[in-house]
Description:
By secondary structure, the chain is α+β, with helices and mostly antiparallel strands. The protein has two domains: about 5-85, Arc Repressor Mutant, subunit A, CATH 1.10.10; about 95-145, Ferric-uptake regulator, C-terminal dimerisarion domain (Dna Ligase, domain 1), CATH 3.30.1490.190. Helices cover about 40% and strands about 15% of the residues. The protein is built from six helices and six strands, in the order ααβααββββαβα. A three-stranded antiparallel sheet has the order 1-3-2. Helix 2 (about 20-30) crosses helix 4 (about 55-70) and helix 3 (about 40-50) packs across helix 4. One zinc ion binds near residues 100, 105 and 140.
Amino acid sequence: MNKKINNFEKQLKDNNLKLTGQRKIILNLFEENSDKHLNAVEIQKAALQQGNRIGTATVYRTLDLLEKLGFVSKINLDDSYIRYQFVDTKEEHEHHHLICERCGKVIDMQDDLLDSLEKQVHDKYGFNVTNHKVRIYGVCKECLSK
Ligand SMILES: [Zn+2]
Ligand SMILES: [Zn+2]
């Protein structure tokens, strides 16, 4: 069993909940697709592809639970879906998203690049930044070369 699952089980226990097979499947799916931004329907389909049928209500409840416990974060990409992405504990902030306006591709941006902005916000407004979510719109490399 991997560390993530052990940690998940422990946190569930602290909340008087059990690590059910379905909860485990959903967390594993997020970990396997850590570069993707999945909505509830996509998670349900991915589980089904592995031969696991999970009811819609269970999927939604599990997503809420995973988010509350900090294993996934809710991602708003300005489409009509609520999406979730696996939280990489190495990340200090939620990573930024580059969104292609032509093909709709979403690229995770791993560098932060906002340290100096945070410092300026602090100096100018006396405001201590704890997090930020950035979406950058434009045209991706592939679309540009077409
Ligand atoms: Zn594109
Ligand atoms: Zn992302």
